[in-house]
């Protein structure tokens, strides 16, 4: 597939793949042009010959990092047959936010949301859209589970979805800032309990 790409497209892809972990670790403001040239071995002119700005590289890197996680989640979701087990996939995937399928630096949604909250509206919008898309996927699973008789009929899908996201992302933030991965493990147990409690 990569051979079908033009030289310019291959160069763009190389820049994205090589710098995605840097942006996800250091943030947009913390990543310098010299970080990009050092990582890629390309000149400033070569990078700006393929991207209009550092911001454009950062936006492409966010999409790349998010796609990696979404593909891994979808692959796991496709393997499960019940809505209950599909929801538990999110607990399992986020159990180790520093390993596969997460890019270097961990969860790009959390990192970008914190990094770009007051500094970069385009990146903030990317993070917001990622959260809203995640919420929609969870709501669809919850509604599907209610319709299939797996979940209680009085379950509030939007509230449950938002609570799951808040617990998972909050757990990652606490684990990162305190350098204590066991905090995330405990919080994910709460997510698991939440999913178990809505079962019929």
Per CATH, the architecture is: Orthogonal Bundle
Radius of gyration: 19 Å
CATH fold-level topology: Tetracycline Repressor, domain 2
The H-and-E topology, N to C, reads as HHHHHHHHH
Q: What is the distance, rounded to the nearest whole angstrom, between the alpha carbons of the first and last residues?
A: 46 Å
What share of residues are in beta strands? Answer: under 5%
Q: Determine the structural class based on helices, strands and strand pairing.
A: mainly alpha
The helical percent reads over 70%
CATH class: Mainly Alpha
Annotated CATH homologous superfamily: Tetracycline Repressor, domain 2
Mean pLDDT: 92
Largest sheet: none
Total DSSP E strands: 0
Shape designation: elongated
The tally of helices reads 9
Question: How many individual domains?
Answer: 1
Question: Unreliable stretches, pLDDT < 50, 5 or more residues?
Answer: none
Keywords: DNA-binding, Transcription, Transcription regulation
Protein name: TetR family transcriptional regulator
InterPro entries: Homeodomain-like_sf (IPR009057), HTH_TetR (IPR001647), Tet_transcr_reg_TetR-rel_C_sf (IPR036271), TetR_C (IPR011075)
GO molecular function: DNA binding
């Amino acid at each position: 597939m990569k051979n079908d790409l033009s030289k310019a497209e291959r160069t763009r892809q190389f820049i994205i793949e090589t710098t995605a972990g840097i942006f996800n670790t250091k943030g947009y403001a913390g990543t310098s042009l010299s970080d990009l040239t050092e990582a890629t071995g390309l000149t400033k002119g070569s990078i700006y010959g393929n991207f209009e700005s550092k911001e454009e590289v950062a936006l492409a890197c966010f999409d790349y990092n998010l796609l990696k996680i979404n593909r891994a989640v979808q692959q796991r979701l496709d393997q499960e047959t019940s809505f209950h087990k599909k929801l538990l996939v999110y607990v399992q995937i986020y159990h180790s936010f520093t390993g596969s399928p997460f890019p270097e630096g961990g969860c790009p949604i959390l990192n970008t949301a914190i990094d770009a909250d007051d500094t970069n509206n385009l990146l903030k919008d990317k993070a917001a859209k990622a959260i809203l898309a995640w919420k929609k996927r969870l709501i669809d699973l919850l509604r599907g589970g209610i319709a299939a008789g797996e979940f209680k009929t009085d379950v509030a899908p939007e509230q449950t979805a938002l609570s799951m996201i808040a617990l998972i992302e909050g757990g990652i933030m606490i684990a990162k800032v305190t350098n204590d991965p066991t905090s995330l493990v405990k919080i994910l147990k709460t997510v698991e309990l939440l999913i178990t409690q809505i079962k019929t």
